[in-house]
UniProtKB/TrEMBL annotation:
Subcellular compartments: Membrane
Membrane topology: Multi-pass membrane protein
PANTHER family: SOLUTE CARRIER FAMILY 13 MEMBER, SOLUTE CARRIER FAMILY 13 MEMBER 2
Family annotation (InterPro entries): SLC13A/DASS (IPR001898)
Chief localization: membrane
Sorted UniProt keywords: Membrane, Transmembrane, Transmembrane helix
Protein name stated in the entry: Tonoplast dicarboxylate transporter
Length: 531
């Protein structure tokens, strides 16, 4: 619609703009400034600011690259700790920070983000998604729970069954994935119990025991295999990077040490939970709500195993066999010798995952066991975090920063041999309560390697306790995402975690202190020098 034209000859031809109110202008500016200067924005600026301060003010007794590496390390960890930038994006920052600060070339950094260890993770994650998609984990949990339920109901035995199932699932997939999969199974069992004022003390305690058992069992189960947690993979990747001429840590090598370690800590967990949460009258209080008939009905609702489920299980079982037999002993070299050492654990992991995209599921014509749409849930954040850990470890080593930092730790030469493992494990397990397990490992292990050189001991004597200790985040909900999964159920509180986690942490350090000089010396050869 056209605006009417004024007949007044003095009226302006163009509309006049009134000068804005200066008070409104200042208020608008202040509100814009306030929305920009949030705590998160300050955390974003904290990384580059600390990096600049170190570059300008800190002088190290070494090459310039070592000072730059320290500055970049502080920048990355500042963003990781504050989560000012999403963790996956922070994990990619070495790809541009390392070349810009002269620490490593772009190609060298990029290689850290895709090697055999990353391939191992990718393949195992795809297989874990297949297990989740076909509800195999739920069927497994119900069968084992029925087996351990007892008649009449035996709460400690049922708790053992739930925790053992969780630990077993966590052995073959990432801790967080195992917790996310198993927590609904556990809470599904707990939903049969009353809530509110009608809930007895015995029922409330058992619910706490189950949730605590699941979150701690995921951590303990993950310790036993390389694929169970990113920490073990970071350790193996760093060992391969720092000591390329030494015998690599294979899946089977780690399992021969990790499984007995995890088993003893798991038994300690079960005893602690039974002592704290399973009273003598709990069987009578629980039997009215939970029995084998309930579990059997749920299992019947799943129906018989179909072809797709059997094939996924077969592929997974074949992958485990291949992992275990790639490298057995010096006398029995395993199938890896056929390929002259060129094939790794990641090779078979990706190969078996590929089979899932070839084998039909026999549900619909032309449909395979897996398709790429089902893989959209792949945890790329974990994969990028692993890559960042490997890149940082390489940068700390090649820049000379590790040598400089280790000089300040000469006093550790006086530490008695048998006190090494508990001391290192205690330090690592304390740091990991306030940072992620992977971040702790990435920070601690390169320093432990240099300390081992100063002490003239096998680096694995320090590296393994450091990595295992980083997985003892048992006290706080924020210690690891698995803890958060359990905490959000509403069944547990922080005091429950501290009451259970503290004796579990002490038991874990004690078990590691016992096994490292004995079984560790046999499996890893820590009594022998590294080539």
């Amino acid at each position: 619609m056209d605006h009417p034209i004024s007949d007044d000859p003095k009226s302006p031809l163009l509309p006049l703009h009134h000068d804005p109110d200066p008070i409104q202008q200042s208020q608008s500016f202040l509100s814009g400034l306030k929305s920009t200067l949030t705590l998160k924005t300050l955390f974003v600026l904290l990384g580059p600011l600390l990096c600049t301060i170190i570059c300008l003010c800190v002088k190290l007794d070494g090459p310039v690259a070592s000072r730059n590496m320290l500055a970049v390390l502080v920048w990355v960890f500042a963003w990781w700790f504050t989560e000012a930038v999403p963790m996956p994006i922070t994990s990619m920052s070495p790809l541009f920070l390392f070349p810009l600060f002269g620490i490593a070339s772009a190609d060298d950094v990029a290689h850290s983000y895709m090697d055999d260890v990353i391939a191992l993770v990718l393949g195992s994650f795809i297989l874990a998604l297949a297990v989740e998609h076909y509800n195999i984990h739920r069927r497994l949990a119900l069968n084992i729970t029925m087996l351990f339920c007892g008649d009449p109901l035996n709460p400690p035995l049922l708790l053992l069954g739930i925790c053992a199932t969780t630990a077993f699932v966590s052995m073959w997939m990432h801790n967080v994935a195992a917790a996310v999969i198993m927590m609904p199974v556990a809470t599904g069992i707990l939903q049969r119990f009353p809530v509110g004022p009608d809930r007895s003390v015995a029922v409330s305690k058992f619910c706490r025991a189950v949730v605590l058992g699941v979150i701690y069992s995921t951590a303990i189960g993950g310790m036993s295999t390389l694929t169970g947690t990113g920490v073990n993979l970071i350790l193996v990747g760093m060992w391969k990077s720092y000591f390329p001429e030494a015998e690599p840590i294979s899946f089977s090598t780690w399992f021969f040490f990790g499984f007995p370690l995890a088993l003893l800590i798991f038994l300690a967990l079960w005893v602690i939970l039974c002592c704290l949460y399973c009273s003598r009258n709990s069987s009578q209080a629980l039997s009215g709500y939970l029995d084998k008939a309930h579990l059997k009905r749920e299992l019947e609702m799943l129906g018989p195993m179909v072809f797709a489920e059997k094939m996924v299980l077969a592929v997974f079982s074949m992958l485990i066999v291949l992992w275990m037999t790639r490298s057995i002993t010096d006398d029995i070299p395993g199938w890896g010798a056929l390929f002259k050492g060129r094939a790794g654990d990641g090779t078979v992991s990706v190969m078996m995952a590929t089979l899932l995209f070839i084998i039909p599921n026999k549900k619909q014509k032309g449909e395979k066991l897996m398709d790429w749409n089902k893989c959209k849930k792949l945890p790329w954040n974990i994969i990028l975090l692993l890559g960042a850990g490997f890149a940082i470890a390489d940068g700390v080593r090649t820049s000379g920063l590790a040598d400089i930092l280790s000089k300040a730790l000469d006093f550790l030469e006086a530490v008695p041999y048998f006190a090494i493992a508990p001391a290192v494990c205690l330090i690592s397990s304390t740091i990991t309560e306030f940072t992620s397990n992977n971040s702790t490992t990435t920070l601690v292990v390169p320093l432990l390697i240099q300390i081992a050189k100063i002490m003239h001991v096998n680096p694995l004597l320090l590296m393994v306790p450091g990595a295992i200790g980083a997985q003892f985040s048992f006290l706080l909900p924020t210690g690891t995402p698995s803890n958060i999964v359990g905490f959000t159920t509403g069944h547990i509180e922080i005091q429950d975690m501290i009451k259970t986690g503290l004796p579990l942490k002490i038991a874990g350090i004690a078990v590691l202190s016992l096994l490292m000089p004995t079984l560790g010396a046999y499996v890893f050869g820590t009594n022998e020098p590294v080539q």
